[in-house]
Amino acid sequence: MKRIILATLLLATMIYTYGSECNGHTERAKAILTKIMNADTDSIYDTMSAEMKQGIQRQQLKSIWAILTMQVGEYKSDSEWNCTEQDGLTIVTARLSFRTMDLEYTVSFDPAGNMAGLFFTPAPPKETEEKTAEAPDYTERRITLVSGEFKLDAILTLPDSIKNPNPPCAILVHGSGPSDKDETIMMRKPFKDLAEGLASHGIATLRYDKRTYAYRKEMNRYEDKATLDFETTDDALAAFRLLNEGNTPIDKDRIFVIGHSLGAMMTPRIMEKESGIRGGIMMSANATRLDSVMLYQINYLDSIQPSMNYDKEKTIKELELIAKIGTPQFDKDTKYIINTPTCYWESVISYNQINTARKIDKPLFIMGCDKDYQVPPSELRKWENALHGKPNISFKEYKGLSHLYMPAGDTPSPTDYFGEGHMTENVIEDIAEFINDN
Which residues contact 305 (CB under 8 A, 6 or more apart)? Predict the structure, then answer.
């Protein structure tokens, strides 16, 4: 799946390719980490596989640590070093603790000893951090969502059964990149906020680990299947089937989808493929194509954080390749663009979210925030202009809120995600009102 996720937080940056023996590799992985911390990465770059060098420039590698610590705070310690062999790769992992959160560091080596991959991704919660939340007005059930060959940890949150014995239910669909069931970003958990908040309004929710999170170390096996549907739609449809066919105490005629970011963009697609969905809530959906939004993000972040120091021009040139897919100007031997399989971009080009939404006759609530630098407020204007007059669609913009529907600074930036924060109550109330009215 995606190798470098520029469309979301740079915290989600992943670089991996292909490619085993554990002997000595753990110590080598530790040495690589030390060099990355010290921006002494030229010698690392020289040992990378050819495919990996196609995905990251020398200067990008040198600036990774500065970018990470800018987002998650100062580094504290490492722990839980492990080495495994998989699909011809030797994979070393460790847990790195920073001021605001833990990251999982993963480095892999191919049989020739070349460094074949490098990950810095949000670390899964420790067992002692796992909680089965309970409150007077809701309960939570741990369940397994089976989506094709993937088994995903999920939570069904149910409001008080006495007050609401047959509640409506919303499926929560993540944004891009690997994401857990709470859609955790640093210390913030927007999907957990949504689930608990909606329960207080008598609405059940189902949230689940995204397959690219639960199976992130195995995603290289599926690169020939990498599409928007593979990343997002398929698991959402499996969630609907679980709710609709299973013995869950919900109103099966009132199952909704709440998509955030990429999940919002894909909400019309999910509803197109499953007519039984009652309605959709689209939180910060891009109306323009994904590569155009990425270009905006690159230029915006570069304007406020020029020290991030990656090869902007090279990235822009790669983005421009996407528009050439399917034309004589495109090299059919191109396997990756922005470190993402070309088949993924083919699915991006073939999907028109506005045209798909036009065909939906079920209720849709399209939302946006004026301090969102990832999906800027101009995108909401495009949705409004394109779908104006459709009686089944409503729109709302929230002032002073970030991409996570939490308070933001005057100049939107990744620092808006630092520290603790929670989804604003009026946002949850509006979503609850939409669901309860439909």
Answer: 70, 413, 414
pLDDT tens for each residue of 205-242:
999 999 999 998 888 888 889 999 999 999 999 999 99
C-alpha 132: how far from chain center: 23
377-413, pLDDT tens digit by residue?
999 999 999 999 999 999 999 999 999 999 998 999 8
Question: CA-to-CA distance for 362 and 365, rounded, in angstroms?
Answer: 10
In contact, 140 and 157? CB cutoff 8 Å: yes
Measured distance CA(365)–CA(383) in Å, rounded: 11
d(CA 68, CA 120): 8
Kindly state the tokens that stand for 372.
């969102």
Instruction: Give me 176's structure tokens.
Output: 């891009």
Q: How would you list the strands of the sheet with 393-398, edge to edge?
A: 138-147, 150-159, 204-208, 169-173, 255-260, 279-283, 364-369, 393-398
Helix (H, G, I), strand (E, B) or coil at 252: coil
Picking from 51, 52, 58, 9, the residue whose alpha carbon sits closest to that of residue 36 is 58
User: What is d(CA 16, CA 9) in angstroms, rounded to the nearest whole number?
Assistant: 17
Q: For residue 303, how many other CB atoms are within 10 A of its CB?
A: 9
- Up-side HSE of residue 346: CA atoms within 13 Å toward CB? 16
Closest by CA position to 115, among listed 94, 93, 91: 91
Cβ neighbours for 357, distance < 8 A, ≥ 6 positions apart? 268, 364, 383, 387, 393
pTM score: 0.77
Given a contact cutoff of 8 angstroms between Cβ atoms, the answer to whether 60 and 310 are in contact is yes
All residues at 6 or more sequence positions from 32 whose CB lies less than 8 Å from its CB, including other chains: 44, 107, 115
Rounded Cα distance, 48 and 45, in Å: 5
- Reading the block at residue 114, the tokens are 């070349």
CA distance 167 to 133: 19
Rounded CA-CA distance 430/427 in Å is: 5
